[in-house]
Write a structure and sequence with these properties.
Layout (H helix, E strand, L loop, with lengths): L18 E6 L1 E2 L4 E2 L4 H4 L12 E13 L2 E7 L4 E8 L3 E7 L4 H8 L3 E5 L18 E2 L8 E3 L2 H4 L7 E5 L7 E3 L6 E3 L11 H5 L3 E7 L3 E4 L12 E10 L8 E9 L5 E11 L5 E7 L2 E12 L2 E2 L6 E2 L2 E5 L7
Antiparallel strand pairs: 1-4, 1-17, 2-3, 4-7, 5-6, 7-20, 8-16, 9-16, 10-15, 11-14, 11-16, 12-13, 14-15, 17-18, 18-20, 18-23, 19-20, 21-22
Length: 325
């Protein structure tokens, strides 16, 4: 046995209880995602993930899978094995999320995630929200945490309100939403009747934590930022739907922290839903139970720029400071 205090075999066993999950937006037009670089970002504070990763919280029953096929090449009269190769790349990940929120519902649902915008009392009812209260517009001096508004516009909001912040719909096709795509339109719609469409699907949302004489102060940063002229509307609820044609796609990072020190990171450059919406119930003490969101995601291929290889997932391990390498 080595007497070196910095080479303990007992520290090589990464015992863990749960995994921490983070996601980052993808440029859907190019398929590009912001990489997780273990050399620069590997041992970050779990409560302060590297930008642009967004915290999903702790997840349970984290399980990775691979269905990539391994084939062989055989030659000659005796069918001698000469080489192996991989084909039909396929991998995924599955987990349960005790926390509910817009990002968590988007990952678990996999389809279009909708902000149900607050409506006037007289609005006709619709399953995904009726005609909303008209947007008010951001004034000069906005930041990702503060929204300057005119005095009359401020009267529409209260501390604790959820808000969607994004541009009016202009009749365009393609991906919509600031910060992260919220939906895709194959053809443009009428701009007048769908003026609030982008704010219905945007991930540029937050909660009002304070108010000044001329601004809304937000408790969470807007992932797409705030700019003069963006519309602001109150969100009544978050909603997803079974069905539809849109697929969410995110880069994801899962961190398993060892109880003996050390850390394992699993980085997926591209993940899409592999199953429809579902929940998992965990009994606490009858009649109480936890209703957890269940996510089943498929890894989509990306290219490693260092050598041009096709990749589905990266696994990196950071040993405890006293562990053998």
């Amino acid at each position: 046995m080595s007497s070196n205090p910095y080479a303990k075999q007992s520290q090589m066993w990464p015992v863990a209880e749960a995994a921490r999950a983070y996601v980052a937006p993808i440029d859907r037009s190019t398929g590009a995602s912001v990489p997780f670089d273990p050399s620069a970002q590997g041992e970050f504070d779990l409560d302060l993930p590297p930008v642009p990763f967004l915290d999903l919280g702790w997840v349970e029953n984290f399980q990775r899978s691979s269905a990539t096929k391994y084939e062989t090449l055989r030659v000659g009269p005796q069918s001698t094995l000469t080489t192996q190769f991989r084909t039909q790349f396929d991998a995924g990940v599955e987990f349960d999320m005790p926390n509910w929120g817009k990002l968590q519902m988007a990952l678990a649902g996999g389809g279009q995630q909708i902000n149900v915008l607050a409506t006037p009392v007289s609005s006709p009812v619709q399953s995904s929200g009726g005609t909303p209260i008209p947007a008010v517009y951001v004034q000069d001096g906005a930041t990702m945490y503060e929204l300057p508004l005119t005095p009359d516009a401020l009267t529409n909001f209260r501390i604790g309100d959820m808000v969607a912040v994004d541009w009016d719909y202009q009749g365009q096709a393609g991906y919509l939403g600031s910060g992260a795509p919220g939906t895709y339109l194959g053809a443009g719609l009428d701009a007048v009747s769908h003026v609030d469409l982008v704010r219905r699907v945007t991930f540029n949302v937050s909660r009002v934590s304070n108010m000044t004489s001329d601004s809304l102060v937000l408790g969470e940063r807007l992932i797409g930022g705030a700019h003069t002229g963006m519309g602001v509307q109150k969100i009544a609820a978050l909603l997803d739907r079974e069905g539809g044609s849109y697929f969410q796609e995110w880069a994801a990072l899962f961190v398993v922290v060892g109880g003996t020190g050390g850390r394992t990171c699993f980085y997926y450059p591209r993940l899409q839903a592999a199953a429809s919406t579902s929940e998992v119930q965990r009994e606490i003490e009858k009649p109480l139970f936890s209703n957890m969101l269940h996510a089943k995601l498929r890894a989509m291929p990306s290219i490693d720029p260092n050598d041009g290889e096709t990749v589905l997932c990266y696994r990196s391990y950071f040993p405890a400071k006293t562990a053998r390498v």
